[in-house]
Fold BED-type domain-containing protein.
Amino acid sequence: MSQVWDTFSKDECGRRATCTICNKSISNAGTNTTNLWNHLKGLHKAKFNELDRLKRGVQNIFDTSEFEDTGTLSSTASTLIASTSSTYSSMTSQVLPALEPLSDTIFNKQTSMKMFTTSQATKLKLDKILAYTIAIDMMPYNVVDREGFQLYTRALCPSYKLPSRRTLTDRRIPDLYKETKMVVENILTNLSCFSLTTDCWTSVSNKPFMAVTCHYLNAEFKLDNVCLGCQELIENHTSENLSDALQLMLLEYNKDIDICIGAITTDYGANILKAVKNLDVPHIPCFGHSFNTAVKNVFKLKQVNTAIEKIKSIQNIFAYSWKSVREKAIEQKRFDLKQVKFPSYSKTRWWSMLDLILVVLSQEPALASFLRTYNNGCFKDRMINEQDVTILKTLTCFSLLEIYLITLQGNHTLQLRRYFLSLV
């Protein structure tokens, strides 16, 4: 019987249940108790937590009293906050100027974890840190409702009350956005010239966005960048709509499309090329995009594509069958090979295929035996031949290009010359 019935009683007709705490009648025609649990969660939080722990068999093993009077937890928390704040970027320190370590009075003079209270100023600091953590780590708002996170927070600071999801949504995150935007505005105000990069992408929820990044030389004459925004594109992605979106994003920072923009870098999409042309701003093609396109064209060559399709089909065997993974491990052990997994690959990231190629080549004896014998040889048509092996070994030289691509992404320093000198 569900623990929820400790707090509810069924009426005579069996279609409703009455809460023994507030005497409210709740619809409960069948055996489902979800609405009863929801009632407790919404109106009787303490009772809900108590019964929820009983339901899951969780004891109160997280009693923070064991930390009292030792000072260990307090000093650890103080050190953690201090070290974390020291690693913030200069921009973060401008957005969250009050995020220095909390007052020494809190951590050094208390004699018990339960003897101090959190002031309004301290709570605001902690709320800001939480909002920053959620934003920078892309955590969901409901993290504040999760029992483990609540227990962890209470262990660090028992008197601190976590903000609700509504507080985060309506106040803390919007305030953080406004403060961050003000920092970006101050940066742009002091720039006489800068360049832009922009690209369109689709989120996991299938919503289209346009992101715009500003690149500039800072006061120390070092290459730096800042994101101006990431705007959802509801309209069709025509050149006119894209150019309007770019202009509106710049107008949010009181910037016009003028000579202060040295150039805009994009990919080779016809719509974005026309959009930049409409703005009458110099356009520089994205070298990284061109580089990736050139490499992917190699994978489209007939003989290369044949070998690639074979190893894709081999990877699919192990991606959807745990039995095949078990049998593969047996073959790897028989040939005294390291039992490695076959990595997944991405259609848009050619370098992910290199990892799969290297695994296939290193496991070739065990793989050949597996394909010949597994399930009466139903996969033996996927075996790679000598020509395929030669092609795959040739493709492994692309590992140098992968290193080059990673080096190219180091946008705070000019890395190209350093890379080419290392090859000489």
Notes: Residues 58-88, 102-107, 416-421 have pLDDT under 50 and may be disordered.
